[in-house]
Amino acid sequence: MIVAIYPGSFDPITNGHLDIIDRARKIFDHLIVAVLQNPNKVPLFSAEERKRMIEEAVADFPNVAVEVFDGLLVHFARSRGCRVILRGLRAISDYEYETQIALTNRKMAPEIETIFLPTSTEYSYLNSTVVKEIARFGGCVRGLVPPGVERRLREKFSSVPR
Ligand code: ADP
């Protein structure tokens, strides 16, 4: 049984993330989407909100679970019996950063392999920051994020001055 972990900020989850999850769930026996509570970043959504939005989006995927974690990813991965860390790659520019992290994680936990999945072309430009910028200024994010995220972005920014 191969358990994989897909870590990230997911602030908020986009259809690019969801595409990676949908493809990975067909490869691995069990997939844990791990929402990082990062003390160095001030997120738009709390970790619990981010988790809830992912849970709604993956409700039809029986072998996918969502958890919040803090601290070192490899410690969390070990505690869940994960053998694979999954990351998505968009452009070549992702590669350098991702390789550095993957090698660092392997140094700490040689039994865990990092696997990269390339993005689907239609999502190669998409990230959470772009989505937040569009929503902040009243643009339409339909098709870029799951419907529950679209709604919450609208709620969030309707109360915030631009
Ligand atoms: P982090 O802050 O850890 O980079 P993100 O939430 O931005 O967290 O991304 C989590 C993972 O999803 C990363 O591996 C990232 O490369 C990948 N990812 C983000 N957007 C896309 C996309 N549009 N297509 C494929 N992978 C993506």
Provide keyphrases for this structure.
single chain; 162 residues; alpha/beta; Rossmann fold; 5-stranded parallel β-sheet; 6 helices; globular; binds adenosine-5'-diphosphate; Phosphopantetheine adenylyltransferase
3D architecture notes:
There is one protein chain. The protein is α/β, with parallel strands linked by helices and 162 residues long. The protein has one domain (3-124): Rossmann fold (3-Layer(aba) Sandwich). It contains 6 helices and 5 strands; from the N terminus they run E-H-E-H-E-H-E-H-E-H-H. It has helices at residues 15-24, 47-57, 73-79, 92-108, 128-136, 147-158; strands at residues 3-8, 30-36, 64-69, 84-89, 113-118. Strand 2 (30-36), helix 2 and strand 3 form a beta-alpha-beta unit. The chain is globular. The termini are far apart. Bound molecules: adenosine-5'-diphosphate. Residues 8-10, 16-17, 20, 87-88, 90, 94, 119, 123, 126-128 line the site of adenosine-5'-diphosphate.
Strand arrangement within the widest β-sheet reads 3-2-1-4-5
Query: Which fold name fills CATH's third level, the topology?
Result: Rossmann fold
Q: Could you say which small molecules are bound to this protein? A: adenosine-5'-diphosphate
**CATH level 4 superfamily:** HUPs
Strand proportion: 15-25%
- Architecture (CATH level 2) name: 3-Layer(aba) Sandwich
Give the helices and strands as they follow along the chain: EHEHEHEHEHH
| Total number of beta strands | 5
What is the 3D form? Answer: globular
Q: What low-confidence regions span 5 or more consecutive residues with pLDDT below 50?
A: none
By helix and strand content, what is the structural category? alpha/beta
How far is the first residue's CA from the last residue's CA?
49 Å
Please, what is the average pLDDT? 95
Subunit structure: Homohexamer.
Protein name: Phosphopantetheine adenylyltransferase
Enzyme class: transferase
Family: Belongs to the bacterial CoaD family.
